[in-house]
Specification:
Length: 259
């Protein structure tokens, strides 16, 4: 097995570290999206463009990573789908008409071990959808993905094993760098598993507050045998409007390896 794909977390947050407005207020919704957009000061678009250009220049990433929580709320159940036999469904599904398409250039990768997200769009402009699932993912969902010609990789038993998934992405698809634009739950899991190599953080001059509002890194508290993860500052920039851009490295072996 080759080395895993490297992970760069690229996230925008309020000055108090909130990455959305509330636990179940999806930024893809019209209401929350409108409020989040109102937080963007002048110059924000230029900051985001500069960050994306830097990521492209440094890493030429061929995968973007999101969690299912970007698309559905916490209490969303698995999709109700026709029953399916599991014969062969728990093998990786990488249809050549997608993987080898001459226009393909990047994967929009979503972790969905419970099979909760229905897909109306499967990509475009050379970006194709890729699902990361587990052996516990309902067979009916895997059959649905195959009917829709949506590629998936199987990594893990009870839940998606992110370390294994990153190895599989490199082995099977040649992905060397992944940009995680996910929410706090997935990024928190990556942090606890020591799977983050770099953090690109944009802080907006706005405070949100609120108990339980998702943050940059969510998840269980540190246990007694775990340590915080040290970060090494690489660059920092501030705009006249108060937007702060920070780039940190996370050195190999730093922090906890427990997932």
């Amino acid at each position: 097995m080759t080395d895993r794909a490297r992970v760069v977390v690229s996230v925008t947050a309020s000055v108090d570290g909130r990455v959305t407005l509330g636990r179940d207020r999806l930024l893809l919704s019209e209401e929350a999206g409108r409020v989040w957009h109102s937080m963007q000061p002048d110059g924000a678009d230029a900051v985001y463009a500069a960050r994306n250009a830097l990521l492209e220049e440094l890493y030429a990433p061929t995968a973007i990573l999101e969690g299912s929580g970007t698309f559905v709320t916490n209490d969303a159940a698995p999709l109700e789908l026709p029953p399916a036999d599991d014969d062969g469904l728990y093998e990786d599904y990488l249809p050549p008409e997608v993987v080898e398409h001459p226009d393909h250039r990047k994967w929009f990768t979503v972790v969905d071990g419970r099979g909760r997200v229905h897909w109306d769009q499967k990509g475009g402009a050379g970006i194709d959808l890729l699902l990361l699932v587990a052996r516990a993912t309902p067979a009916s969902y895997l059959a649905y993905l195959r009917r829709e010609t949506i590629p998936y990789l199987v990594a893990g038993d009870d839940r998606v094993d992110l370390a294994l998934a990153l190895h599989r992405m490199r082995d099977a698809l040649g992905v060397t760098h992944v940009i995680s634009e996910a929410g706090g739950t997935l990024n928190g899991t990556l942090l606890r598993a020591s799977l983050i190599d770099e953090l690109h953080l944009v802080l907006l001059p706005t405070a949100i507050g609120g108990r339980g509002v998702p943050t940059i890194f969510d998840g269980p508290e540190l246990t007694l045998d775990q340590s915080p993860t040290p970060l090494r500052l690489l660059t920092s920039n501030t705009t006249p409007e108060g937007i702060l851009s920070l780039r940190y490295a996370i050195d190999p072996g730093e922090g906890s390896n427990d997932c």
